[in-house]
Specification:
Length: 416
Amino acid sequence: MRVLVIGGGGREHAIVAACTRHGHEVLCTPANPGIARQARVLHSPQDAASLARLAQQEAVDLVIVGPEAYLAAGVVDACTALGIPAFGPTQAASRLEGDKAWSKAFMARHGIPTAQHLTFDNLEDALAHVRGLRTPIVVKDAGLKAGKGVTIAHSHEEAGAALRDIFSEAGAKAVIEDFMTGQEVTILALTDGVRYALTPPSQDHKTIYEGDTGPMTGGMGVICPFPVPDDALSLIRETIIIPTLRGMEAEGVPFRGVLYAGLMLTPQGPKVVEFNARFGDPEAEAVLPLLASDLAQHALEAAQGRLDPDAVQFQRGASAVVILAAPGYPAEPVRDIPITLPPEPSGTAIFHAGTRQDGEVLRSNGGRVLAVTATATTLQEALSGAYSLADQIDFPGAQMRRDIGHRIGLAPGAEV
């Protein structure tokens, strides 16, 4: 199959690797230096119409859209209009991620469990509301913020600062919700809008510093699978995944692609923290290396409304991802730092998330720069493999959390 992957981060590198593993010819735009070693890089304007024309000119059999911004811009719609199968939700369906206020209202309409919340379109009312709440308070920018538009405020002053930042932009909305307790877990559903297949549960580590402290990031490390009890998995299917797909279909915006359910396993049962409309990043770098079956084939069938869930198969074992982020991230990441990569032993991979090639020199070119993945029989072995490889990377000043997996008692030196 001839596949065009759209995007240029760690998630897209993992998608490219999953497709090439099954012998597909992969093209990618805008790509990155790591992707360029596995796929043919195409240069194109990144608007929806240009990307659809590129897919048509290259006579691809399938387009896989990685980042949320492209989905919100209507890339899938533009490809579909030209008769090209595209894996991902339409512009209208991607609103489930792109507009948190709409998403929360959708959950309320369809009885999908989530935190108690209110949405505000002006700063004064939002500030008045938080003054009456107990801390911690969760403040979310309703728009697309690449996973970083969330503040867990431990004081009213912190909540107010977050709200002032959100409403500094015209037309902003803020969602203010109760703080939920429990283990946070991600479930990804590959779906054709009706049928679906779940990936193994994974757990990201969102804050920049160890001990789950510091500012929120796009994700600093992942373990997969996260041990979700069978009864909780059944509840997730019955109260979240199925009602969401049925609800989207009932509202005339069927959801095809990857439904990302960010969940909290609360004492009252699983609840939605947020929905995303694509593979998570860095969850994709943990989940896709465990996929034994053919991602491109599943994506094509889902795009055409004929997914076979039983064909989606994952290998036994576990994976772990450790992120190397640039100094200054998430505020002002330092760019152009030279990086030297070691060889990748069997069962490991270094996915490029924010790099650029400068002649013979690889340099940092973003906040989260590299995702180091290892697969193994156990989570502890996977973590050890990921950290071992990460420690061999020459990347001066890189930030790396040393406690990935700590919430279930795992860490590089922990016993299984």
